[in-house]
Design goal:
- 2 copies of one chain form a homodimer.
- Helices cover 41% and strands 19% of the residues of chain A.
- With 155 residues, chain A is of the alpha+beta class.
- Chain A has a 4-stranded mixed sheet with strand order 2-1-3-4.
- In chain A, a hairpin with a 2-residue loop joins strand 1 and strand 2 (34-40).
- The longest helix of chain A is centred in the first third of the chain and has 17 residues, at 3-19.
- The first copy, chain A, is globular.
- The two termini of chain A are 32 Å apart.
- Chains A and B meet through helix 1, helix 3, helix 4, strand 4 and helix 5 of A and helix 1, helix 3, helix 4, strand 4 and helix 5 of B.
């Protein structure tokens, strides 16, 4: 199967998602030519703002692989990933991303995430969301505890 | 309870997380002075690269509120949020964020996410991850289907 074929699977999931009351987004994760994860947007269905198609597909694939790393996988998504999904893609060590519709297309359908990308690339003082560090004595206690562990799994 | 008190709850969760085999991160979500969501890092425990403390706390609070929006809530986290969590915070419409340790502190403990922030602020051509648009005839079929829906929930 070609990139085009796998992308069509993601688009089909996006269409089925709308039929089932979800958002119009779908994604599949492919490992060595086989789909090992699928996801569609379930934000309003599950009341979960993190339930984007790509996130769902990553979780699905990781569950099946029993692994938090998908470094030999390609993600195909019906639409250009938002910053949350793109960062999750980096955390999952996915090797390559292919998308169909652009963020601009999504924006025309009422799904604009470009303001989030703009915010993330600004210093905190320039953002609309107030973010503040509050230093307390105990601030790094969990890191010290972690670093003292003998059997930790780094990731 | 003050910011400091709620932040301490997040730090306590981070410490408990290490005791229970999770990552050294914790977060709580507060609505009108009450904690309505809690999370700790479960990436390696659950084989879920999206299971950061802030994501878990957002999902927990949304589940309890039956709402995908937390616009009257403050998020307290033991460590500066990574770009995935920060974008999720925007999607959840959280009003304010308070953190204890910095991303630099996390990096010294082996948890570096600053490379992801740098990647996200670059054009695709400058990133280490290959991302490509593959245009197909069907690219916006799910958006057209969505826009034709009478009873859609915008978000």
């Amino acid at each position: 199967m070609s990139d085009q074929d796998f992308l069509q699977q993601a688009i089909d999931l996006a269409n089925r998602s709308v039929d089932e009351g979800g958002g119009p987004f779908g994604a599949v994760i492919v490992q060595q030519g086989s789909i090992i994860g699928r996801g569609n947007n379930r934000v309003t269905l599950d009341n979960d703002p993190t339930a984007h198609a790509e996130m769902q597909a990553i979780r699905d694939a990781c569950r099946k692989e029993n692994n938090f790393s998908l470094s030999d996988c390609v993600l195909y998504t019906s639409c250009e990933p938002c910053p949350m999904c793109m960062a999750a893609i980096y955390w999952a060590r996915i090797a390559r991303v292919v998308f169909a519709a652009s963020g601009e297309d999504a924006s025309r359908a009422g799904f604009d995430d470009r303001w989030i990308a703009r915010e993330l690339c600004q210093p905190y003082t320039e953002r609309s969301l107030p973010v503040a560090q509050c230093v307390c004595e105990d601030f790094d206690s969990s890191f010290r505890k972690w670093m003292a562990l003998a059997d930790k799994i780094p990731y």
